[in-house]
Amino acid sequence: MHRTGELYGQFETLEQQKDTAQLGMWVFLVTEVLFFGGMFMTYTINRHAFPAAFGIGGNTLDLRLGGGNTVILIMSSLTMAMAVRCAQVGKKAQITFYLIATLILGGAFLGVKAVEYKQKYDHHLIPGQSFDVTFCVNHPSSCGLEGKALEDERKEIDEAIQAEDREHPGTGLVALNAHAQLYFSLYFGMTGLHALHMVVGAGLLLWLIWQSFGGRFGPGYNTPVEITGLYWHFVDIVWIYLFPLLYLIDRHN
């Protein structure tokens, strides 16, 4: 296989090469839909089976951090789309600017997610021997709970224990802890896999930024920018589904 400029030897034109690359990315994204779809189905089945524990788990998540990260990702999709557009019309300096902006926003998302993970560790919500879904109720100062918020949390925990006890007599708290661990196992699995995709996307952006400094992309050749844009938008869309599924369902119950 040889390469002439940006055209590889197995292709006759850059347009054919671009169409082939786009088809390949779409096929890859379909496999990703199937992959994430399995996780979404697992979550949905278990949420239906253990609604009380999953409701408590969702209420422990910080809505401000999750909502803020949603805004960050939506903005990153905008900057990625602008980078693609600038590559198509030949605004080479702006390509680099928007790619860097997208990378910064992606890094901000991962930083906020790290804060969330640290918060779960501090509140004993990592599945394992130290897991305790009632930690914040028993140690309100460690979780910043007080007043009505604390009373509401206690009421929710008590109602969840009673609901679990009706299903599993005499083991309400034990069952709640076990099923809440299942929620957080899925939470860390789904958000962790999404974060891994973000890290891969950040690596692609770094390569694009490096190439864009040399003025490589323009109206004649912008396939890598467009292909990376498709991947980045897909990762953002996955989060649009993760956010309500993990943070919003039964939020006020």
List keywords for this structure.
single chain; 253 residues; mainly alpha; Four Helix Bundle (Hemerythrin (Met), subunit A); 2 strands
Q: Estimate the global geometry from the Cα principal axes.
A: elongated
On the 0 to 100 scale, the average pLDDT is 86
Number of helices: 9
Corresponding CATH architecture of the domain at 14-38 and 52-131 and 180-248: Up-down Bundle
**Main CATH class of the domain at 14-38 and 52-131 and 180-248:** Mainly Alpha
- Topology as a string of helices (H) and strands (E): EEHHHHHHHHH
Structural class: mainly alpha
Q: Rounded to an integer, what's the Rg over CA atoms?
A: 23 Å
The CATH topology annotation of the domain at 14-38 and 52-131 and 180-248 reads as Four Helix Bundle (Hemerythrin (Met), subunit A)
Percent helix, as a range, is: over 70%
What does the main sheet amount to?
A: 2 strands, antiparallel
What is the CATH homology-level superfamily of the domain at 14-38 and 52-131 and 180-248? Cytochrome c oxidase, subunit III, four-helix bundle
Strand line-up across the major sheet? 1-2
Strand fraction: under 5%
Report the end-to-end length measured between terminal Cα atoms: 61 Å
Number of strands: 2
Write a structural description.
The structure is a single chain. The protein is an all-alpha fold. The protein is 79% helix and 2% strand. The protein has helices at 14-49, 51-59, 63-89, 92-122, 135-138, 140-143, 147-167, 172-213, 223-248, and strands at residues 3-4, 7-8. The longest helix has 42 residues, at 172-213. The chain has a domain at 14-38 and 52-131 and 180-248: Up-down Bundle (Four Helix Bundle (Hemerythrin (Met), subunit A)). Helix 1 (14-49) packs antiparallel against helix 8 (172-213) and helix 2 crosses helix 8. It has 9 helices and 2 strands.
